[in-house]
Design brief:
mainly beta, four-stranded antiparallel β-sheet, two-stranded antiparallel sheet, 2 helices
Length: about 100
């Protein structure tokens, strides 16, 4: 018996939203965008890209480090498990320490 695999594509447009005059709908007005393709199986696998970069600080090296990747549709691997983070972590944060 083979495992069941479910794939999903996700695209979000914004963290901020507001209604538009004359409509009942709300539209994204600000924030960052990302696209992700996720495969749900025995071990989750995903690829994603963020428009621009992960940081909102223009002085950060991560402010626009994904802009070219976003424009070309070249998604990066998403790390879900500790073993996947080896060699890909700049720093760690543990609240309370």
């Amino acid at each position: 018996m083979s495992p069941t695999v479910c794939a999903s594509a996700i695209s979000t447009a914004s963290f901020g939203a507001a209604p538009k005059p004359g409509t009942k709908r709300w539209y994204g007005t600000s924030g960052n965008s990302f696209v992700a393709v996720v495969e749900f199986g025995p071990r989750v696998r995903a690829h994603a890209v963020t428009a621009g970069g992960e940081s909102g600080n223009p002085a950060s090296p991560h402010f626009n480090d994904e802009a070219q990747r976003y424009a070309s549709g070249n998604l990066r691997e998403v790390y879900f498990y500790p073993d996947q983070l080896t060699g890909h972590t700049e720093r760690t944060y543990r609240p309370g320490e």
